[in-house]
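It is worth pausing here to work through a concrete case rather than discussing structure prediction in the abstract. The textbook approach is simple: state the sequence, then state the predicted structure, then interpret. We follow exactly that order.
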Amino acid sequence: MHYPDSVQFLYALGNEMRSAKLGLDRMQALLDALGNPQQHFRIVHVAGTNGKGSTCAMIASGLQVAGSRTGLYTSPHLLEPTERIRIEGRELTQGAFTEAFDAVHAVAERMLARGELDAHPSYFETVTAMGFWAFAQAGVEWAVIEVGLGGRLDATNVVQPELAVITPIDFDHEAWLGHSIESIAGEKAGILKPRVPALTSAQRPEALAVLRQRALDLQVPLYQTADWPTRDVQVHADGARFEMQAGPFRPRAPLLVECPLRGAYQSVNAHTAAAALDLLGLQPNQIEQGIRSVRWPGRLQQVAFHPDVFLDGAHNPAGCAALAQYIRQVKGDRPVWLVFGVMRDKAISEMAAHLFPCADHLLLTVPRQPRALRPEAMIEEAGETPYTLAADLAAALELVRQAPPNALVFIAGSLFLVAEAAAVLGLDELGPAHNNVSS
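Step two, the predicted structure:
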């Protein structure tokens, strides 16, 4: 099968969220038939509500700097599904992606013909199996695996990791995970396993209590990033730096952690990644260089100048709060234009309450997705902030050209919107910022 055909087949399996099947039986049966490729490498498994993708990228970067052949599996993608599966920092080629798809799809079809599966594996199950298969074929030594949804019943939770990591837990996907922090934390805690140490970022007290109880039930150590104290935290417009003191194992000089990702919350993610890498036994210089070298597109990524345009995947209340914090930090006397589009199933009022007051002008638009909310439905949330309705992102970007050269422009609300923006602007996902928004 050719790459476009493999992608079309995956999309035909259904919307990644609506077609999700929470449960591990089908996934485990598929992997058994594939020879359990996930058992051929060591794994760091990462769950959480916010920051898990960035944290995964930093951990993978550190392992790669330490000399390990490293895989990274994340979701969702921005431009192409090949981005989800990376080896040595590079996404799969289209040919390698198609080869992985053919291998998994052929096994699934044989199992269906024999009545061994109730249905073809879902989009996410298929791509997850493809990632495991590709890592095994490539001789990966370590893989960093990001949970897709929740944790306990997520398709990735068939792995037996060396370390489980939980990033900050907050509200998101309540229809799937529950409407309280305790219930959401319970789902995230489902990745904890016997004999596997766990590390958690700083958490709300009610989330931490759930994680502690789960670790106690399994009799596994639960480390907290507070076990690696930080000091002299400096957050600036283009990243953050801080000193991290020795953890609970090895007395040594402090690390100087420099994170090139924008936003104060990235210092939290860098702290978590550095602690995880220390738990895995990396040397201080490997940890420092790994985090300093990380790239993570689509999260406060500057893509144009004069006006300065940023893409940010803030798509839930906590993400919007973090973006609002960054805007307040860098705004000064510059006007802020916010291009905003969101899915219908999100906590729109809470997201708007964080972000909209930061804007001098709102451009309310809609991602090209069936689940997207029409911009007219957000007018009430605008309050006193001046707004303009844009029929689609292309129309919104036409309006952005009217922004003064000193403006700050943020495109946020949905990763789908970020992906569209990258495509409309003609960006390579890891490419440099363009000179202007019309490039």
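Step three, interpretation. Residues 301-424 form a domain with the Protein-Tyrosine Phosphatase; Chain A fold (CATH 3.90.190.20). The chain has 15 helices and 17 strands.
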